[in-house]
Amino acid sequence: MPDPARSPYWLRDNCPCTQCRDPRTDQKLFQITDLPADLAVAASTTRDGQLEVLWSDGHRSRYPQDWPATPGGDDRRTEQGKQLWQAADFAAGIPEAQWSAYLADPAEQAAVLRAVQRFGFVVLREVPCRPGQVRAVAESFGYVRQTNYGELFDVRVEPDPNNLAFTSVAIAPHTDNPYRDPVPTLQLLHCLENAAVGGDSGLADGFRAAALLRAESPADFAVLTRTLVPFVFRDRRTELRADRPLIETDPRGRIREVRFNNRSIGRLDLPTAELDAFYAAYRRFAEITLRPELQLEFRLGPGDCLVFDNVRLLHARTAFEPGGTSQSPEGAGGGRRHLQGCYADLDSLASTLAVLDRRTAALDELQELFEREGAQEYLGEAVTQAEHMLQAAALARAAGAPDHLVAAALLHDVGHFFDQHSQGAVTGRQLMQGQDNRHSDTGADWLAQWFGPAVTEPIRLHVAAKRYLCTVEPAYRAGLSEASEYTLLVQGGPYDAAQAAAFAELPGAADAIAVRRWDDQAKAVDAGTPGFEEFRPLLATLMASA
């Protein structure tokens, strides 16, 4: 809980109320200049687990007990929070995953993306060997960055190359595109063919090399962080230049980016003493990057896709015997080597990972609700609340219902567990005490954080569907349980003819009626109800498509 004695501007700037923040986007609705220059806390108190602050301008803020909900602070792009490595750290194997598992399992996808954040790279295995597939890998977590090399580029021997990458010569450890501003922060290389003699891939942790330079020669480290280096690329159609240091640090001195590419360094125009200092530091850093213990070497085979951090890791390639060019496949010597690549960016990867983590947290929260509040009685019926909802989902699945209706059946009564005013109290009891808790709206609104209308609207309308069915199907009402008949009256009773006709015209009426019927049937004692865990993959898929 925040301390009311903390900076008043910080506290007010982070007020979570809907007057200050858009509830859909969490974006602020005011400017810092809208706050009075003499802003102060007029009064504060703790009530119902919340801090209430009355401000000197009359505004009132309420901060939940667990506020702030999201951690703030550190830049995740720096060395802090990453695992700096040398080759021996991967003696048991490099970070890798099967493409099929990555696509099917959100937890596996999160683990892959987290490996890129933590170690700087991962290899996806058995990615289909077809041209253009690398785009699908990039789009599974972000967007392709188009450059002068195109949206995709082919790394193979070309007859008229505009880059040494498109030859068979050895390529020393380097980062790509240092002459761009901004530089692409991710690179993907998908192996379509590799029958060449040689042509093995290599990686070195540039952050580890920079950290070693800092430890062994602080003066050289300082030179490389403050000297702007002109990185240049030009061909017949392109001229690019970016002036950046070889090692970039954040305001706290933490390593944030490495740009290292001997082929692309232009002419430095500096006084002689500064040039001497730079080249001495540059040479020392280069020697560190080439230390054998930092070199991780492996071979990419057909179907392997390497994803790596292009502002941290230096990548390399051994020379190979070319087996022809893209225009002349019948060359002498070794076999052909063909990788297809593209660029992407770390911010999209981090966004996708954050959303995956948020969905996992949401599923954990739902499961906890089923196991905790769901273990309590269900409105006077012989089953618990969780058994009732799980039975409804099982009935929907057995009926061959689409996934969104299985999810709606599973979650239709979540609103009984709590609402925004009850601090987690089980509000189904209010309904049995004669007070309509509007659980269908509460549940639908809460679930809309993660699910689309195909899931939430049948939930929102399932009480209305009950009132509708009681009007148009007299036998339906006769079949209601005693408890359901009671709640019907609390919720407003059957619709009149006009209300029933209006409900039938609603776009989601048919789905709501289907959920309602499974709801009514899901009250069987000892029905062999499946657990919530069984429905998690389905819910995760629906969250991803919302």
Q: What is the gist of this entry?
A:
By secondary structure, the chain is α+β, with helices and mostly antiparallel strands. The chain has helices spanning 8-13, 99-104, 106-119, 133-139, 206-216, 218-226, 272-289, 346-371, 385-398, 403-411, 428-432, 439-447, 453-472, 474-478, 482-490, 497-504, 509-521, 536-545; strands at 41-47, 50-55, 60-63, 96-98, 121-125, 153-155, 171-174, 186-194, 197-198, 201-205, 229-234, 239-244, 247-249, 255-258, 296-298, 305-309, 313-317, 320-321, 337-344.
Mean pLDDT: 90
Q: Assign the CATH architecture of the largest domain.
A: 4-Layer Sandwich
Strands of the widest sheet, in order across it, are 4-5-16-8-19-6
Name of the CATH class of the largest domain: Alpha Beta
Summarize the main sheet. 6 strands, mixed
Number of helices: 18
Shape: globular
How far the N terminus sits from the C terminus, by CA atoms, comes to 32 Å
Q: Quaternary status of these chains?
A: single chain
Q: Which percent bin holds the helix content?
A: 25-40%
The SS-based structural class is: alpha+beta
Strand composition percent: 15-25%
Q: Give the number of domains.
A: 3
Q: How many strand segments?
A: 19
Query: CATH homologous superfamily name of the largest domain?
Result: Clavaminate synthase-like
CATH topology of the largest domain: Double-stranded beta-helix
pLDDT < 50 stretches: 328-333, 419-428
